[in-house]
Amino acid sequence: MAMAVANCCFSLLTYTVKFRCCVSSQRYLAKSHHSIASVTCKAVVNHKRRPSSNRDGELKEGVSQKKSSRKSKDERSYILDDDDGIRGKRKAGRSQSAAFKSFGGQRKDKKEPKFDMKEQQVEPQNLKDAAFLDAVVKVYCTHTEPDYSLPWQKQRQYTSTGSAFMIGNGKLLTNAHCVEHYTQVKVKRRGDDTKYVAKVLARGVDCDIALLSVESEEFWGAEPLEFGCLPRLQDAVTVVGYPLGGDTISVTKGVVSRIEVTSYAHGSSDLLGIQIDAAINPGNSGGPAFSDQGECIGVAFQVYRSEEVENIGYVIPTTVVSHFLNDYERNGRYTGFPSLGVLLQKLENPALRACLKVNSNEGVLVRRVEPISDANRVLKEGDVIVSFDDVNVGCEGTVPFRSNERIAFRYLISQRFTGDVAELGIIRAGSFIKVKVVLNPRVNLVPYHVDGGQPSYLIIAGLVFTPLSEPLMEEECEDSIGLKLLAKSRYSLARFKGEQIVIVSQVLANEVNFGYEEMSNQQVLKFNGTQIKNIHHLAHLVDSCKNKYLVFEFEDNYLVVLEREAASASSFHILKDYGIPSERSSDLSEPYVDSLEDNQAAVQDFGNSPISNLEIGFDGLLWA
Fold it and tell me: Does Acetylation show up as a keyword for this record (predicted)?
């Protein structure tokens, strides 16, 4: 499934962006060893980044997407991101890489604005009840992103706008990407000139939903929207929001084109989605989509841009929204959508089914099980899952959906909550048995998003240690990251809870680290002979070390040896010379707690199975 979903749409000031893709500078790029040539992307965004220009209010024309010199059939899509305007994502498909990248650089040209005249605009009075429009508000967000290459500081702040709507009980709903790395969020009602401060109660990165609240009583007054059920194909749909092209509310209309498990670009997850042909533009993100009955059927959040297609937008259905809200109400916080934690293969080939002693035309093969998932306790490689909570699973990995449709098996898992127990019917060596599995959110060895806002770091004698993450890989390039580290981030599974790939991102030159200054983005494996589990473990080992030397072992038997007392004495001068406030992030000041599970974890090789919660490699493989 070469999904290319994205252009997450909230307004930013229009500008032209031209960028060159480095393989390692894009999210998930280790999924392909092919280099990516120069690409020019099309994005019309409403972005207020630096108020140094006197043309901030002037609309500019985006440039069109340009094919690379090595043309491939993969589909590329983009989130229109607050920070740099474009965040590209290429979904994994047949031998394709995936990417999710913020591209910097802002340039403005003198071309006149262009508008797509094919977009069908509808007057507000065509809605069954125009009063519903009063529940849709405009979101103003100020963002401050971490600097992952220099983890002790943050990047310069910028602003963006999006949409949200009232759902009752003093709460608003919008997209998670609209308030990503927020420092201040304000909202403004339709027809009002007052902005009110909003508080972010919860952010669901995987489902791209955020819950806001406004304390001011003056803000409220409009009737909250009512959620409707899942629409049918060809049902009329109306999208409302505050996209670019003006300051007032905008309404566009279309029909429901498709309902299936869809790739969510912001969260890098696969959940149920509604495809529509109504125009969704930057700024519509977080706005509601209505049925003809005036019920809210979902939240607009992303579009697919390609030269081959047009008018493909996506809406988060109310089933996903309800899951998010129920999760928040149950736990007082958002815990996430659960995962089964198995890599599956379709059983379409009759000979394959016969070899596995599967007599019926059903089931999916368990190809690999995540070590830290509960499924690792009851499932084995070679098992065939034929049912999930008594719902039969087809050989294509699909299950019945509504009256005469089928949908991906992952849909059933996404309907459950964290901690729920699911019953699986499996065929093992020809015998049918039932097993029970506790469902929990998937934990990636290399996280797609860094929780808490600020990345962890530890500076020892000028060596900057930090966990490898996808945002960090975005800021680096292929030569800097290295193919071996990229392969690990792509293919390796976490062997125990809390495991991280710890790297030296750079060396701050000083006499004490003489000869090591050229090191960058290399994984540290051991400290004084002890295997490193995560960066907190490394900080604990260094703090408790009494040896004369600090010995760090890296990939390919590369050694760094420092004198302990000299390293400790140099810390003050290094921090002062480079203007760094602390030698470690605040989270590493907490006491380190070791666990038996960590100590019992077996060494795991990588390279056999690509790892993703998306369909990968070819259509026969997918993560549940």
Answer: no
